[in-house]
Amino acid sequence: MVTSQEDFENEQAEIVNTVKSKxxxxxxxxxxxxxxxxxxxxxxxxYLKKHLPSRVRAIGPNVYIEGSPTELDxxxxxxxxxxxxxxxxxxxxxxxxxxxxxxxxxAGRSFPPELLIEFETLRERHADLKFAYLAIxxxxxxxxxxxxxxxxxxKAVQSGYRAFYLAESQNQEIISGQWQQFVNHVTGNTTS
Length: 192
Prior knowledge:
Low-confidence stretches: 143-148
Largest sheet: 5 strands, mixed
Mean pLDDT: 84
Order of helices and strands: HHEEEEEHEHEH
Shape: globular
Number of helices: 5
Structural class: alpha/beta
Helix content: 25-40%
Strand order of the largest sheet: 1-3-5-6-7
Strand content: 15-25%
């Protein structure tokens, strides 16, 4: 298990580099966005698994919560959770955490408006769920570089949703501590 800050920083760099090196397998044109987003999700899932308590499993991508038509990136579910027959939908009582993952986050550390709507809709139905957003890379990481975060970001923060950003898109600079903060946030909120 990774414990030191240096280990977390190394993992964070590995995640960013792995996603960057593999995304070209599908191409970078708009038609490959889903491929690249799914790639990012699978890489995050692989690294996150080793930090999760034994009573929690990471499931995704392309997963659902029963009763909701929203396709989700990553769910953290109880260790014995099984999807409904012939589906990738899990019972709400088995879901502990929902993670939205983007390969490229919006400029200025903005919270994606469509993800905010998804989180809010799920929270209305399942008040006990916890949520977080993780972007592998983000343009203009400092809020004051080119404007301030958008309206959706302010609403997300007010609603208690956390957002984490691993690296800057333009220069690939790692944003120190973000992976460790994300892991601590997720593992600290996966109670039974």
